[in-house]
Amino acid sequence: MKHIVAKALTFFMAITSISVAQDNVDVSADRMRENVKTLSSDYFEGRAPSTMGETKTINFIKEKLENMGVEPGNGDSYFQGVELVKIKATASEVKINYGTDSEVFDASKDIAITTKLTDKNISLSGSEFVFVGFGAVAPEYEWDDYQGLDVKGKTVLILDQDPGFIYGDESLFKGKGVTYYARSSYKYEEAQRQGAAMALIIHDKDFTGASWSRMQSFTNRAALSLDPEKILAENLLMQGRIPVPSVQKLFEKAGLDYQQEKNKALVRGFKGYALNAEISVSLDVDAERSVSQNVIGIIPGTERPDEYVFYLAHWDHLGTDKSLSGDQIYNGARDNASGVAGILEIAQAHMSAGAPKRSIVILAVTAEESGLLGSYYYALNPIFPLNKTVTTLNIDTMNIYGRTRDVWVLGLGDSEVDEFVYSAVRDKQKRDVTFFPHPEWGIEYRGDHFSFNRMGIPSIVVAGGYDTFDPNLDMDAKINDYDARKYHKVADEFTDVLNFHGAADDLVSMYLIGTDVANSPKFPNWNEGMEFKHLRDTHMNEIGRD
Questions:
Q1: Are residue 410 and residue 359 in the same domain, yes or no?
Q2: Are 464 and 399 in contact (CB under 8 A)?
Q3: Closest to 136 (Cα-Cα) out of 233, 259, 265
């Protein structure tokens, strides 16, 4: 009995210590609960972009911001149109020439090719294959797979992931920690910058646990993209995936062994080379255009209103699937009604406290589930100058299980934003700040904050914690259960047992961090050796900052 009383007293004292630190912050777990319950109800139809569910969702967010007194962030509008296109590409013929002989690859088995362009028919003829290792140009890691190569008009074969990830070699990139150069989006974009016509990422079980059939289906699906006619970013003519059996044929025809050549590409100084093969392919393309909306509000700063601290979350989810029996609506309570409710709480907290010195921007973006499209569109078409955007704090899938003593922070250790994190969370809120323990998951590159990172703006994500106050709450089991049974499934629904007090604590963490940044004269930069520091350095030079 004495042990139980002592345990209860410790539990009470720990919660009280946090409560005192946030008593003056207008964040409400009950208000958040109601907003999550509403946004994840069937009325919002799963919040898919360019549907009636979107219309209901963006108007809900707009009205909430308006009622708080948050000003419209795009002139006199709370909306920013995001021009999308759904593309379905079908390969009608894939012919491989090996000099004296040729063969036809089965587009339903041997290769998967798509495009982000909208022409009805796209053709590539006699494009030479070039093996470019990991396809990375990473000066901060002294790595350049394209050095000395001319790949203009050619088809590059690229290994998945990055060199350090494969064997966890800490001398290469970040070892097991995933870098920007491991992302398929980077590999395609770098291939385009190098002038390639097509890029094919090699599907190899040494690099991924996904099956070839799953990856092929993913590549060949009808997929949303930013409308290429409406954005500045360039695209390859074609892109896709190719499985190891098909790749082995290409290497064998050149008198090479794929496994041996793959291992050579793991060594710094690897030189890419052409293979004795060419590809010709034709694509038939169906393109369906639509316009979705980002929702944006601003709380103007009192002293430096032309400098901006962003809070963002994606409002979209997966909509409805009429092919399902029973429940057909992807309500997305945790992913990401919780995040939208979170930025609404942040907005309320700032409105209640009064504006800080810098402006606070509240941004709810569309089409995250389709590849961070809404946030990337904003980054390509910023309403507020990127060189005056100080930092971004992203909220995605909040803790809805209970309170924790600690906070996991994605992006910790990457930039000078760290000092604000420690000052606000550790010193003011009295919570532990910990690194996200799974760098190999690459989550830092899979959220909307990454659209800002790649433009040079350091960002963080407060991801909740695991050190729970409640001895009966196994956070690890909760997260694993969510990932297995609810993530991107119709089971991600609001229930009365959800506990929003932990989320409220995390929102206070984010509010305190953002407030400290907004009241500071410091313009935080990336730490040395980070992928996007050169872009931030350019921003600093443009605005006359050291």
A1: yes
A2: yes
A3: 265
